[in-house]
Design a protein that fits this description.
It contains 15 helices and 4 strands. It is mainly α.
Length: 378
């Protein structure tokens, strides 16, 4: 049966008045994205640099000092103290004074002259991000420094042809040439915050009606379940649109993240995503018996959204079953859409599959919410 515009507008008016009267919740919904965007953006950088380092330089020659200098110049390591040996370096790591220990053996320069020398880099393995950043940086710096020494030796021996490597690569990084982590994070955070706001704005809707005793008033109306569901979705859309504007303004003017694609296309697809998030919240509210249960289910969904949507962890490395669970979350599709439009500047032709999946998801979740809505008191 067709949706009645008159009944739908009446429900929308009722929900709007109720939403505006609950000003603490209204204020929280408006301020929450600002606070969470700032928190996630400032603490979400997973690349560590300036790692505190303890050095045990048992050679104390020009070669060891040059290697230490190369580590410091890279910006990944900060020498904060010198120790007498490997055991003291490990102790400094155990006591939390440093994250990395560097042990240079005696006669470092002599070993380099005779062929090769080995330095020991000890990394605090209790922090995965320290291991990832420290190990990669140490290996890369050692290789570059060692290659420079080899070329210098070759030139001194008169082998000028070895002054240049036979293969030289030129690397060009698209879209984010400065490898700025915030450019990668902000589009994904925008998607995550919109879903968080949408779910929280509607997850309590039906449950609150039951617990406050206002469900009886809804039951005596001629409104159909689909009209009730749509009536509860429409008012939060305008509120979340305000949040979307705040998020975009913060991303562009505060964090200096450019929007390379169409802002109009991003807005329309964001609206589609908002409807999907609101539908998810209503679907959760219709199967929840009370507000506490609704909050618990919502918390689980948001945890899965952070872990499985590709916001932080790459989905390509996830097992098929885990990726399949992530496909049930609308943010999975909009994270790719947001990064595609904001970071790459691509259009609909390059991401139509995600847009189609999001449209299908939104249709199914709203229909499911209407189907599971029981027009009766449990």
């Amino acid at each position: 049966m067709a949706v009645s515009t008159q009944r739908l507008s009446a429900i929308v008016k009722k929900e709007t008045i109720q939403m505006l009267r609950d000003w603490p919740t209204l204020l929280m919904i408006i301020l929450m994205p600002v606070i969470e965007l700032l928190l996630f953006a400032y603490v979400g950088d997973l690349t560590l640099d300036h790692l505190p380092t303890a050095v045990a330089d048992m050679s104390r020659d020009s070669s060891s000092r040059a290697f230490i200098s190369a580590l410091e110049v890279s910006g990944f390591f900060d020498v904060v103290e010198y120790v007498n040996g490997e055991n003291e370096a490990i102790r400094a790591i155990d006591e939390g004074r440093v994250n990395v220990g560097l042990v240079i053996p005696p006669d470092f320069a002599g070993r380099i002259a005779r062929g090769t020398a080995q330095a020991l880099v000890i990394i605090d393995g209790s922090d995965a991000f320290v291991v990832q950043s420290g190990y990669s940086a140490a290996v890369a710096i050692a290789q570059v420094h060692g290659m420079q020494l080899m070329l210098q030796t070759a030139e001194r021996m008169g082998m000028s042809r070895l002054g240049q490597l036979p293969i030289n690569t030129s690397t060009r990084i698209l879209y984010n040439p400065n490898i700025d982590q915030i450019v990668f994070l902000i589009p994904g955070l925008a998607a995550m915050l919109l879903q968080l706001i949408g779910v929280n704005a509607t997850v309590m809707a039906v449950v609150r009606e039951r617990e406050l005793g206002t469900m009886e008033q809804m039951l005596v109306t001629p409104a159909r379940p689909l009209e009730l569901i749509l009536g509860k979705i429409v008012p939060p859309i305008a509120l979340i649109a305000v949040d979307l504007i705040i998020i975009i303004l913060l991303g562009v003017y505060w964090f200096k993240v450019p929007i390379r694609g169409s802002l109009g296309l991003f807005s329309w697809l964001a609206l589609l995503f908002i409807i999907s998030g609101l539908g998810m919240g209503l679907a959760l509210s219709t199967i929840s018996k009370n507000q506490k249960q609704a909050q618990q289910i919502s918390a689980v969904v948001m945890m899965l959204s952070i872990l499985l949507t590709g916001l932080i962890y790459p989905r390509a490395t996830m097992p098929p079953l885990v990726r399949a669970i992530g496909n049930l979350i609308p943010a999975t599709y909009f994270v790719r859409i947001a990064r595609g439009i904001m970071t790459k500047g691509i259009g609909l032709a390059f991401m139509w599959e995600d847009v189609l999946a999001l449209a299908i998801y939104g249709t199914i979740i709203v229909t499911l919410s209407a189907a599971t809505f029981k027009k009766r008191l449990d």
